[in-house]
Amino acid sequence: RCSSKTSGGSPGSSPHTTSPRVYFQAPGETTEEPPERRHQGKVTVKYDRKELRKRLRLEEWILDQLVALYDCQEEEIPELEIDVDELLDMETDQERGERVKELMTDCYKPTEAFISGLLEKIQGMQKLSTPQKK
């Protein structure tokens, strides 16, 4: 769970305390603030940390694979955007595989192992679309 606290700048306080801060809180922990205040400026995190960690590990794996496939440094990978959410929106693994293959048409190394590994890793993942503002 995540809550936002804004510290008011008082004379003698450091300049860093005047900006909004986000504090992560484990389930069951309490904050020093009364519940009424917490609702005034709260930040809502739509996704749990476990899902975000899975996504981060997947993105790191994709990056490592692309560096090897394109035989280059990370900064030199051709403009390529593999949108995991777009893949999760597709109906079948065949469609997903075709989309990734289409994105990687300029790769001269075989991409089949990468594509099958990617499809295996995204199975069961949740889509992380941008949270909608109310």
From TrEMBL:
<dbReference type="InterPro" id="IPR008025">
    <property type="entry name" value="CPI-17"/>
</dbReference>
<feature type="compositionally biased region" description="Low complexity">
    <location>
        <begin position="1"/>
        <end position="20"/>
    </location>
</feature>
<keyword id="KW-0175">Coiled coil</keyword>
<dbReference type="GO" id="GO:0045087">
    <property type="term" value="P:innate immune response"/>
</dbReference>
<keyword id="KW-0650">Protein phosphatase inhibitor</keyword>
<dbReference type="InterPro" id="IPR036658">
    <property type="entry name" value="CPI-17_sf"/>
</dbReference>
<dbReference type="Pfam" id="PF05361">
    <property type="entry name" value="PP1_inhibitor"/>
</dbReference>
<keyword id="KW-0007">Acetylation</keyword>
<keyword id="KW-0597">Phosphoprotein</keyword>
<dbReference type="GO" id="GO:0005737">
    <property type="term" value="C:cytoplasm"/>
</dbReference>
<feature type="region of interest" description="Disordered">
    <location>
        <begin position="1"/>
        <end position="42"/>
    </location>
</feature>
<dbReference type="GO" id="GO:0004865">
    <property type="term" value="F:protein serine/threonine phosphatase inhibitor activity"/>
</dbReference>
<feature type="coiled-coil region">
    <location>
        <begin position="63"/>
        <end position="90"/>
    </location>
</feature>
<comment type="similarity">
    <text>Belongs to the PP1 inhibitor family.</text>
</comment>
<protein>
    <submittedName>
        <fullName>Protein phosphatase 1 regulatory inhibitor subunit 14B</fullName>
    </submittedName>
</protein>
